[in-house]
Amino acid sequence: MTDRIFPELTEDALARMKDAPNKRLAEILSVVIPHLHDATREAKITTREWEQAIEFLTRTGHMCTGKRQEFILLSDVLGVSMLVDAINHDDGGEGAGTPSTVFGPFYSGRQDVLPKGASILKRDEEGDAVRVEGRILDSIGAPIEGALVEVWQTSPTGLYDVQDPSQPEGHLRASFITSADGTYAFSSVMPVSYGIPVDGPVGDLLDALGRHPNRPAHIHFMISAPGYETLVTHLFIAGDEWLESDAVFGVKPDLIASPERVAPGEFRIDYDFALAVPHRPS
Length: 282
What we know:
- The strands form 3 sheets. Strands 1, 4, 10, 11 and 12 form a 5-stranded mixed β-sheet that branches. The chain has a 5-stranded mixed β-sheet with strand order 3-2-7-8-9, with no helix packed on it.
- It has helices at residues 7-15, 23-43, 47-63, 70-77, 80-88, 201-209, and strands at residues 129-138, 148-152, 173-177, 183-189, 194-195, 214-215, 218-224, 231-237, 256-257, 260-263, 266-270, 273-275.
- It is 26% helix and 21% strand.
- The two termini are 40 Å apart.
- It contains 6 helices and 12 strands.
- By secondary structure, it is α/β, with parallel strands linked by helices.
């Protein structure tokens, strides 16, 4: 452990928050500031390195637009998004639902509700067709009627519509409402693995660390219903080469689906999701 250089600075920074009107913010910063100061001491950060860190964060902010969130991407590749997810969701505990995973930076808002079984494509795509269907259940297996199922994925090029001007707006995105028996269904094209954007500061960071930017093939889901926790998750495709080294650490074994071939070039995925009841203070 390095000598604690200038300890009174840390003590003073903490003392100045004692009258903070936002008690939760003060509580969080009372943990963050000592860690940040100690990390600065232990790594012996130089003035130039701190300037580079500020420049990096500034560039990260400049990359953010209505269609791209570079700070979410940064949180994802550092594993912070999955850590926050783990802290706030009890995968496998009593009353727990389907495991959650990262939200990602490419959700673009609620889409039009389509009839059950409809295609989420707004143009033809090369690739195997896939029908995804199943039920939305509560934690004891009862169907949930009227749940909102939002889905989104990349095209076979590995790009989302918000990244690719050639794609129609809302391509490979849709919303569905579950039936009385809790069922949902839609048709799509088989998802592909892809690289997260590397044309910004997050890409520079990965390159400097010798890390790849690849994510295994997946479909995003966000499922909500009154009285239940909103579930943000993915379905990953079994056999993908990047399952063990997802750039954003998002893979969980229970979220890996094995598509069933039903005809040449046509597959089906059957997957039931369970929603958890919100935790209430005891």
